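Entry type: protein chain
Record version: 2
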Amino acid sequence: MPCLQFWQMNLVRTYGEKYADSFYDAIKSMPIRIFHELEDTVFKETGRLKAAYKISLADSIALAQTLVLNGTLITCDHHEFDALDGKEPVKFAWIR
């Protein structure tokens, strides 16, 4: 199940279907890319990052995808990523 659909399901439970639908539409309209499949380069980079920094698999994948695309990782997860800031050529956009 794609992540946004899972998120929407939780939003329906918490705030109702109308709110969840509007939230989902807002996310889809943003200039972000939603990945349903990961390339081999991302899997290899994920393994390297997971071994080097002992971060969670999900965070390793997010960081690897960001590095491969030379993008910006938007996160509030200081717990996982503060130690990596400056160690890898990745841009972080901290949302809190």
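Comment: The radius of gyration is 15 Å.
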